[in-house]
Amino acid sequence: MKPIKIVSRLTFLSSLVLLFACSTTPATNQEIPAEVEEPIVEVPEEAPPVEPEPLVTTASLYAIGDVLLHDSVYNAARVDDGYDFDSAFEQISPILSRADISIANQESMIGGSEIGLSSYPAFNSPYEIGDALKRAGIDLVTTANNHTLDRGVRAIENSIGYWNEIGMPYTGSFLSAKDKANIRTLTANDISFSFLAYTYGTNGVVPKQPYHVNYIDLAQMQPEIEKAEQSTDMTVVSLHFGTEYEPLPNEGQTELAQALADLGVDIIIGHHPHVLQPPAMLEGVNGNQTFVVYSLGNFLSGQQGDDRNTGGIIGIDVVKTIEDNSVTFELKDPMFYPTFARKSTGGPYEVVPLEVARPKLISPISNHMSQWLPQLKIEQ
């Protein structure tokens, strides 16, 4: 039986001490580094980039129909030192003034009393109607119509001279070629508008100079429209066209409106029929929107009959959106405020809300004006 070798614990430890003592590097002089924990650095998650909010601005454009001063109208406005038309617009001035831009068709030239006032068929009106329109909130007048040349060059010169005197922009008839070439522009809320005006004719009277009045001629209109399109955001064209006393536009009106839409015109304001014709929204060849009202009827005149005394204020909002370095425009929220012109109990003519003068006409007029534009808001 093999003997079992037993090594005591003491003997084993002694051997270990001897072994370490024979080492070339003394173990007692070497420091054993402690373990160092690396710091935990929390890296925040990258937030997604914040998309800039679109920049949206809105400008409202309002327009009224024919201001055609028959002798009954200006005689009723006579005062000791001239004429006072302020009361004519007193009730509707708050509506006009709430718009960013309001325009009017001054159909009778304001050549002033100095050359003699006159009525149908050759009109000449007092200067004071210009002051009243401005105080009522009108920002620009159009003057291209079939009565522009009624009293000749003198009436045009006097009229334009007075518009300049009171600081009222005008378009449609001019003093010179340079004056005509200067396209009238107005800006509201960072949205710029160009204004042009043309007439179908001047009752057979031939102008002495081509700049005295703008005629409807697409070949001549196109360069001016293109210039306006390049220089401003919105192009507004006033057209004196159509058939008198007809409640709907004729084929010539609709074809011309579509041709202007195809050229990029944004807003078309129609005059001349002396009665209301409904608005519509057209689409141009490039997919653009064009808002057109074919006739705004009479706003203030001495004509007789409910249809010829019913007019109104048409309005449209232009919405400009800037997003991702692109700019877009949209025509929104069309509105119509029907009015009625009448002789007041105090004597002067006045323009009042239709519901005040002829409440029974509100429903048929609302239906008539919204037949092609169901979204048209009728206000009163």
The percent range for helix content is 25-40%
* Number of strand segments: 17
- pLDDT average, as an integer? 91
How many domains? The number is 1
| Overall form | globular
Strand portion, in percent? 25-35%
Series of H and E elements = HEHEEHHEHEHEHEEHEHEEEEHEEEHHE
Measure the end-to-end span: 129 Å
Class, according to the CATH hierarchy? Alpha Beta
Q: Find the CATH superfamily.
A: Metallo-dependent phosphatases
Could you state the oligomeric state of the chains shown? single chain
Q: What is the CATH topology classification name?
A: Purple Acid Phosphatase, chain A, domain 2
Description:
By secondary structure, this protein is an alpha/beta fold. It has a single domain, classed as Purple Acid Phosphatase, chain A, domain 2, CATH 3.60.21. It is built from 12 helices and 17 strands. The protein has helices at residues 9-21, 71-76, 86-89, 93-98, 128-136, 152-165, 177-181, 218-231, 251-262, 306-309, 354-357, 362-369; strands spanning 55-68, 78-79, 82-83, 101-106, 140-142, 170-171, 184-188, 191-199, 234-240, 267-271, 276-283, 289-296, 298-301, 310-323, 326-343, 349-353, 377-378. Strands 1, 4, 5, 6, 13, 14, 15, 16 and 17 form a 9-stranded mixed β-sheet that branches. Strands 7-8-9-10-12-11 form a 6-stranded mixed β-sheet. The protein has a two-stranded antiparallel ribbon with strand order 2-3. Strand 5 (140-142), helix 6 (152-165) and strand 6 (170-171) form a beta-alpha-beta unit. The protein is globular and about 105 Å long. The model is unreliable at 1-29 (pLDDT under 50). It holds the Pfam family PGA_cap. This is CapA family protein. Belongs to the CapA family. Residues 1-29 form the signal peptide. Keywords: Signal.
